[in-house]
């Protein structure tokens, strides 16, 4: 909550609030398998614990996701990053940024936190190797000063992982 | 049962369902039938449809055919399962009878009973149809291409948002500020011509007229895109718009003064003889009383009210039409001439 991006963020609109409350209730009744929402009183930033699916490279490992919601959620995509240490994965940078089209260009307001989580777990599960992206160092250097991954011009080229 | 009888039944099915029936294999019968609820004649009242696959074995009709859903719209998994179960149940009941038409009719029956949107609005996650609140449910709409339903308010909010986003992109791509309005208009036209959107749920392309229809119904057409509003802001400051507004206000005021009537009196004004004092006194006396009553509230018009009645009447009638000139001192004679000319121009 102390990061500069959090304090400068605009508060949720009423519509965004209603929708998030609805999602939270839904989550409490029926959470996606492998995910645990850490209860806080902050509706605008969710911290979610991910546990790697059994039988995959990340089995039993636990990572933390940070989901920040913009003023006009769900029209705008939430910002989703792994809280470092991020899982080593060909599409996840060491600063926690995730290269996944649905978080950026392919976002649709019909998606939910729950559906994002399922996509992320599927992305982790299909990983062939615990490896950083080839351009990890360059990208992370460019992202200093807490730049949001939503400002990155992503290039989605690999649909296999 | 004989092969001929089964073949004859297939012919019957084809006759009943026409183009909606696709025969994959004549014997043993394997067919796909596209089925709609009975109410589907009114397309706006159709929320579900399905293509049912029926695949019979060589033991048909002793052994019922295998039922599957090839394609469907508006049916979630639960309702798809329900549909298959109910058709399969009937198939078992009718074993050893020729049953294909009966199975299709059962499917139509089921679809008819399911012909309402189900579940939550994908955008706000609140129910589309709230059984508890009954008629208090919010209005919703359906995309014709995929039958996905949304609350009208929700889809319009989303639509306006994506229009605004693409406007922004167009704006940021054009650096020169002088060509901004032009670019906006081009962008608008591009969107109108593009006339395609993608369903938020399935990304299936839909025609924007689906949405525009809803915009019309809700009466928010003016908010279709922010670009138009921005262009308006520029137009609003232009002289032509100011004049247009003054004219409108003049007509509106006139309408209020004459309790809604404009036309007959306006004809009077246009008569050239009207401006001669003798000709005017009689017919104008009545309207002078009504119009002076409202005029007295407006101090700026007092000088005009005090002038002779022949001048006063057209002046009061179109006073805001002359707003532009009001500040300039003018003798009443000039004003009258001006009016005659102007009215002639606008009426020719």
Question: Describe it for me?
Answer:
The complex is a heterodimer of chains A (161) and B (348). Chain A is an alpha+beta fold. Chain A has a single domain, classed as Ubiquitin Conjugating Enzyme, CATH 3.10.110. In chain A, 25% of the residues lie in helices and 14% in strands. Chain A has a four-stranded antiparallel beta sheet, with helices on one face. In chain A, strand 1 and strand 2 form a beta hairpin. Chain A starts with a helix and ends in a 19-residue tail after the last helix. In chain A, 25% of the residues are buried. Chain B is 53% helix and 11% strand. Chain B folds into three domains: 111 residues, Ubiquitin Conjugating Enzyme; 102 residues, no CATH class; 109 residues, no CATH class. The C terminus of chain B is likely disordered. With 348 residues, chain B is of the alpha+beta class. A four-stranded antiparallel beta sheet of chain B has the order 1-2-3-4, covered by helices on one side. In chain B, strands 5-6 form a two-stranded antiparallel ribbon. Chain B has a two-stranded antiparallel sheet with strand order 7-8. The longest helix of chain B is centred in the middle third of the chain and has 22 residues. The relative contact order of chain B is 0.06. Classes of the chains: A alpha+beta (161), B alpha+beta (348). Chains A and B meet through helix 2 of A and helix 4 of B.
